[in-house]
Amino acid sequence: MKTSADPVRDYLSAVEREGSALPADRRQELLADLAEHIEVTRVERPEATISQILTELGDPRTIAATALAEAGHGAVAGSARTGGAPVRRGKVHPLVPLLMLTFSLPLIMIFPDLPGPVFGVLLRIVGAVLLCTSVHWSAVQKAVGVGLTAVLPTAVIAGWNLSSDGPSGDTPALLANLATLVLLAGTAAWLWRARRP
């Protein structure tokens, strides 16, 4: 950060530059919040220098990254202002969890003996975790996605295996597995179309 006659303006400019991907209204709200925080801190702690206050706020990149990650949740970048840990932003491509969730079932179908089911379950768990921690979907979309791609198929398959009511014979089992695969692929396609950049 450059040293100038107005370090607050330089700091806010750096945050604005780093947060250029934010919608304009959200970026202006963030800058107004930061400016207000700086002014309140100056009044409450007159002994603190501007440099100390800006250092306590954190790196402009971290604040912008946190705001970008939280923009879809409607939250203010408060964790950055209070020194919270930076939020991970898009390190995993949104296609990765969708493919993991979709292909967990075919892996189990192709390799019905160990280790196919183990790898299939691991793919489903990791895919669900990556989906839940992604910044590309809202909380509701994540819940629906995990419910339809991980929870529901797992519950149905477990119910089939634990009861005598499950599909018996090759054709009914194949049709049930294909229906489940269609559900997984359809949910993944919906999530792909509904994702945020």
Quaternary structure state of the chains depicted: single chain
Query: Helices and strands, in N-to-C order?
Result: HHHHHHHHH
Strand content: under 5%
Radius of gyration: 24 Å
Runs in which pLDDT lies below 50 for 5 or more consecutive residues are: 73-89
How is this structure best described in words?
By secondary structure, this protein is mainly α. The protein has two domains: 7-81; 95-194, no CATH class. The protein contains nine helices and no strands. It has helices at 7-18, 24-44, 50-57, 60-70, 78-81, 95-110, 116-133, 139-162, 170-194. The longest helix is centred in the last third of the chain and has 25 residues, at 170-194. The protein is rod-shaped.
Secondary structure layout:
Blueprint (H helix, E strand, L loop, with lengths): L6 H12 L5 H21 L5 H8 L2 H11 L7 H4 L13 H16 L5 H18 L5 H24 L7 H25 L3
What's a quick, concise take on this entry?
By secondary structure, the protein is mainly α. The chain has helices at residues 7-18, 24-44, 50-57, 60-70, 78-81, 95-110, 116-133, 139-162, 170-194.
Descriptive tags:
rod-shaped; mainly alpha; 9 helices; 2 domains; 197 residues; 71% helix; 0% strand
